[in-house]
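subagent[fold] <- orchestrator: predict structure for attached chain, return tokens only, no commentary.
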Amino acid sequence: MKKKILYLALYCLANSALAENLEDVYQLAIKNDQTFQNATATRQAAAEALPQAMSVLFPQISGLANTTMNRTDTEGASAVVQAGLQKYNSHGYTLNLSMPLIDFTNWYGISQAKSSVKAADATYADAAQSLIIRTSQAYFNVLQAEQNLYFARSQKELLAKQLAQSKARYEVGVDALTSVYNVQAQYDAAVATEIANANSLFTAYQNLNVITGKPIDHLSRLVDDLPLLTPNPNNISAWEKAAEDRNFSLLSLRYTATSQLAAIKVAQSGHLPSLSAVDTYQYAQTSVNGFSPGQQSTTTTSSVGLQVNVPLFSGGSVLSQTRQAQAQYVQAQTSLELQHRTVIAQVYQTYTSILAGISKINADRAAIKSANSALASNQAAYQAGTMTIVDVLTAVTNLYNAQQALVTDEYSYLMNTLTLKQLAGNLTNLDVAAINKWLTNGTTTSSSATIVNQQALADKIKASATNSPLANQPNIKAAPVNHASRPVNSTVKTS
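subagent[fold] -> orchestrator:
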């Protein structure tokens, strides 16, 4: 089993691509993310609609060539026709040229194609912004999972020390056995939480690898003193106006509706006549071999004219196509209105979430300091006998919850900042570079190390739950697990 785990770890390290910060990961995503590659190909295919629509306005030239071996057996001669068997070869060619002069269907088709290409461009731009969002979210999920794993390990280590002290106090008759059981239950739960968080970290790395297409080994972590910036401009109406004007999902649907409106005209123009200029050149040659000496005749014909095509009856297909196009236009309009309402609602929600997030992060930081102080006080009071072990365990849980809340709120704040810019249509790689400045040179736990540690935790959970560690530490101090104590490169230790 150990050899298998070691091999897996070495394999991951050997095939890993070192991408230490968000910009590196984003560049990998641009090259390898299949969702974005699909959007790129879709845009390229849609762009061909315009040259195809315009091609019908240019002259259409076609050619036809033929050669035929003929055999004729004639009975009864005349002054004009010879009697007997005749064999002769005939061949020739025909060139046809047509030039549409008036064709409303073609003209409306070009207008439809232009709008559809613009819709495809807007969809592609939206996909490009979505790539930034998806990459950033996957990146932050790894960082958040790593920090949760570190906090869970710190909680477990703190509970291990508390369990050792409770057992020591029980052995000398200071504490009841229930105190030991309470700490033991909390410790066992902390071990299970550590295992779950290790698995979450591994899963977060795998989800990131889906986007980058290559295994990621380490990621730069977030700075401890994350700057908290309000939206600029700090005016919800300005963001709403920007979203209405530049949101790419809205622009795509607007152009789609315009394209469907042109499709109605294309269908209706099926009733209208069309005028074309036509030119035909025909060459034919016949060689005769029979009872008389070989003869050869050559014919050349050319014609130039105007051709009017007047649709009289098409079985009702034009009316049906018109009704279909009108229904599709209504469908496009309703989709546009729904998306407009959704985007505006998201702008308001995201904007207010950023402001609330800033306040909540400040509150979380204060809560961690208070939780640390409360834990230290409760431990001292427990030593003095004025508080029970339940009070200490509650303080440990409160500290752990406050740390997790801060981590969650910080990454929610960052994602809301990016999402608001995406909604306004101005999210670019410059925003990735701006967030990248808030990352330190320290790295997170590698994915391969997570695999090894996760397996080691699973192998030892039984022993950890039944044989809790005893440490000769009479003075129990609050573990320094506040927000500023995030590790540079932490790995999970097993007891």
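orchestrator: received. Logging for downstream: The beta strands are 60-74, 84-102, 220-222, 274-289, 295-309, 439-443. Residues 104-171 form the longest helix (68 residues).
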